[in-house]
Q: What sequence folds into this?
């Protein structure tokens, strides 16, 4: 009855688990199958679950042959070696190895048994029999090969193959399989050594070979572990593991060859520029068509604590400097405030208490919108930003899911100049929006990740025209003409306030590349300038990528069906040319949206051949000629003058009292010399003459003087003209170069 009760109890025991509760590593691969990292388990082991079908038959056969050649025949315990081990124990008083089957070893590993005692050995035997009752030989062997120790903290054939030989267990060669099959018998002493032969393992191979004459001689070799590369894309892999840890395999979008190129370029650039105080950089490369992250360098060195290398520069919010300016122009294009040739004002301007300055602390006067963006002028960008509505730049960034923790009033008009912190990921998503015709798409890091829906933030027309304007920026150290000999790059730089961050972002071929140079602790450095600090690294990466993966340059064309037209413009005014416009250029505009009018700056006028002065009509009394002059508004003309840019301005009219054409805005000249009456001495007319002077409004450069209708002469507005009249009564007139006149009656006695 006792034996029957024991049997019933044994049959009632629950089915033991083979792997439940055991943590396995995750193998992170690039898009081509290259292993980027094998993660540590919670118990700090490298342990990769590998199905038996994915393990080399050579390793399976060698393991069975050397560990348990009767594995297929016994029921968990091999009685012959077990009896031999028991007899040796009786004689010596100490347990000796050699009796454990693969099933018994699995029981020891799975249930953490101490088998150096008689009680421990008995429990091992019972567990082995129990495992055999519930599982097939296939399942037992699979579990053993996934839990067997292979030295140090490496468990399982899958992890051992990847770490020692850099390949999957399915691709092991015969000699490699034999070497691995011998390690579990003495994992501490037989673990493979990087760059050195393990003599203990070699000796074990030789002993096995002598006992198995049928073994192929090629299965004996000098076992060495392959040199393992350091962390590959550590910031990228960390983010991937943090977001997805389920399953033994993660296939990412990363391209190992591009990652190595990116990392090498960063390392070389830091080494070459360390004397300038440049010690850290980050870079991010994506394919904007698929939004897949292809390469990522979160810092110059992950292991360098002095630069806080473990901080991820692609996700760390920083001031972007001027890299957000293109989106001000894109919104202004969409809202019909500008087209690429619209004249903007680069001049001192105050916005309440905010007084933006340009990087060079200078002002260029009137400037085309495309040139203002290409030359990164601050004042025009802030002026445009102040005019945006629904959306403003702030609303646009919030719609793009850029994290802005404060309300719009907090940032004011500083956003285009880097007044809010954004991440490198934000920037590449935004520039990808330009490349994708105005549609915002999320980044992708998993190769088979479903495509998310996109969100339209800009019109295809505005996105295209903004990139066109960015394509006018020459490469560092080159003119635009020199840059045009290279495949086109649409790019922008940024420099944060106080020289703490240098940025460059580029759209080219099918890629978006962003580069940051700076310090994570915010230390400033005069070398942290976008064009000289970050752009050289950006173009080294672009040239390296194009050299390794040459592609046919594609012209930048409008998207199909876009509401765009390319026509002639007046190259001076930026408007549709009138009949008198002498210089023309081609450009794009958005019909029905862009603020297009016909140029009224260039006009043909009649000029008196004798005096060079303008007349309103040909009355047949003078010799006239037709000439084209520029008619600017007073504010733009003042900006041209301030910037020292000469314009071909029309001459004033001949004095025709009462003519409506003389009516002009502003203040007319005020004659201060001579007085209404003056007495001539006998010598005055023959010597120095009478001084003529008038006060003029700011901006007047030249004065023309007349006595009645007779032309006296011309002088600079701030100068004095000498007049030698005869006694009499004169109607003295001072005419400025804006066509405004002031008169005074003068009696000379």
A:
């Amino acid at each position: 009855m006792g034996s029957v009760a024991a049997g019933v109890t044994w049959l009632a025991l629950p089915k033991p688990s083979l792997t439940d509760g055991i943590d396995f590593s995750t193998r992170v691969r690039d898009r081509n199958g290259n292993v980027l990292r094998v993660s540590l388990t919670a118990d700090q082991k490298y342990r990769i679950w590998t199905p038996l079908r994915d393990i080399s038959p050579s390793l399976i056969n060698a393991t069975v042959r050397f560990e348990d050649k009767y594995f297929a025949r016994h029921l968990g315990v091999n009685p012959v070696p077990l009896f031999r081990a028991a007899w040796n124990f009786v004689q010596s008083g100490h347990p000796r190895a050699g009796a454990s089957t693969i099933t018994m070893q699995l029981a020891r590993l799975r249930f953490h048994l101490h088998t150096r005692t008689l009680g421990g050995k008995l429990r091992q035997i019972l567990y082995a029999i129990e495992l055999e009752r519930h599982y097939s030989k296939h399942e037992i062997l699979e579990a053993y090969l996934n839990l067997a120790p292979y030295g140090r903290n490496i468990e399982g054939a899958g992890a051992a193959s990847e770490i020692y030989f850099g390949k999957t267990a399915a691709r092991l060669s015969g000699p490699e399989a034999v070497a691995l099959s011998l390690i579990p018998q003495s994992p501490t002493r037989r673990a493979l050594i990087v760059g050195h032969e393990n003599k203990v393992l070699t000796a074990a191979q030789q002993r096995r070979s002598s006992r198995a004459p049928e073994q192929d001689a090629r299965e004996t070799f000098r076992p060495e572990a392959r040199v393992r590369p350091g962390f590959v894309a550590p910031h990228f892999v960390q983010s991937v593991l943090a977001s997805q840890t389920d399953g033994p395999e993660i296939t990412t979008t990363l391209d190992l060859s591009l990652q190595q190129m990116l990392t090498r370029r960063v390392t070389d650039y830091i080494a070459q520029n360390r004397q300038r105080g440049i010690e850290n950089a980050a870079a991010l490369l994506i394919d904007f068509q698929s939004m897949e992250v292809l390469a990522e360098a979160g810092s110059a060195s992950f292991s360098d604590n002095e630069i806080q290398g473990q901080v991820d520069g692609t996700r760390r919010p920083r001031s972007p400097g001027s890299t957000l300016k293109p989106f001000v122009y894109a919104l202004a294009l969409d809202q019909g405030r500008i087209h690429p040739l619209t004249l903007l004002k680069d001049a001192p301007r105050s916005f309440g208490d905010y007084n933006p300055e340009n990087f060079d602390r200078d002002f260029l006067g009137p400037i085309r919108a495309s040139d203002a963006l290409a030359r990164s002028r601050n004042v025009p960008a802030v002026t445009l930003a102040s005019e945006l509505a629904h959306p403003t730049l702030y609303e646009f960034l919030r719609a793009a899911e850029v994290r802005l923790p404060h309300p719009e009033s907090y940032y004011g008009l500083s956003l285009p100049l880097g007044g809010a912190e954004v991440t490198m990921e934000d920037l590449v998503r935004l520039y990808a929006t330009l490349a994708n015709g105005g549609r915002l798409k999320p980044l992708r890091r998993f190769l088979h990740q479903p495509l998310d829906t996109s969100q339209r933030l800009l019109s295809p027309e505005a996105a295209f025209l903004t990139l066109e304007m960015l394509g006018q920026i020459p490469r560092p150290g080159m003119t635009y003409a020199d840059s045009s000999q290279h495949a086109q790059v649409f790019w922008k730089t940024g420099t944060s306030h106080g020289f703490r961050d240098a940025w460059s972002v580029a759209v080219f071929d099918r890629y978006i590349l962003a580069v940051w140079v700076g310090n994570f602790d915010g230390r400033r450095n005069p070398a942290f300038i976008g064009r000289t600090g970050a752009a050289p690294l950006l173009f080294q990466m672009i040239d390296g990528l194009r050299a390794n993966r040459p592609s046919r340059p594609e012209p930048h064309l409008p998207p199909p069906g876009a509401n765009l037209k390319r026509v002639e413009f007046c190259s001076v005014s930026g408007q549709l040319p009138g009949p008198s416009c002498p210089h023309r250029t081609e450009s794009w505009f958005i019909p029905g949206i862009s603020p297009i009018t016909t140029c009224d700056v260039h006009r043909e006028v009649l000029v008196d051949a004798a005096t060079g002065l303008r007349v309103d009509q040909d009355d047949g009394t003078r010799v006239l000629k037709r000439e084209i002059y520029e008619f600017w508004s007073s504010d733009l003309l003042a900006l041209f003058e301030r910037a020292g840019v000469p314009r071909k301005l029309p001459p004033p009219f001949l004095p025709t009292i009462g003519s409506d054409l003389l009516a002009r805005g502003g203040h007319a000249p005020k004659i201060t010399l001579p007085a209404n009456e003056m007495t001539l001495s006998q010598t005055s007319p023959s010597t120095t003459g009478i001084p003529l002077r008038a006060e003029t409004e700011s901006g007047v450069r030249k004065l023309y003087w007349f006595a009645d209708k007779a032309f006296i002469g011309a002088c600079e507005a701030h100068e004095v003209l000498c007049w030698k009249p005869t006694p009499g009564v004169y109607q003295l007139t001072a005419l400025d170069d804006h066509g405004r006149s002031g008169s005074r009656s003068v009696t000379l006695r």
Remarks:
- The first helix runs from residue 2 to 12.
- The mean pLDDT is 86.
- The chain has 22 helices and 27 strands.
- Residues 660-748 form a domain with the Immunoglobulin-like fold (CATH 2.60.40.10).
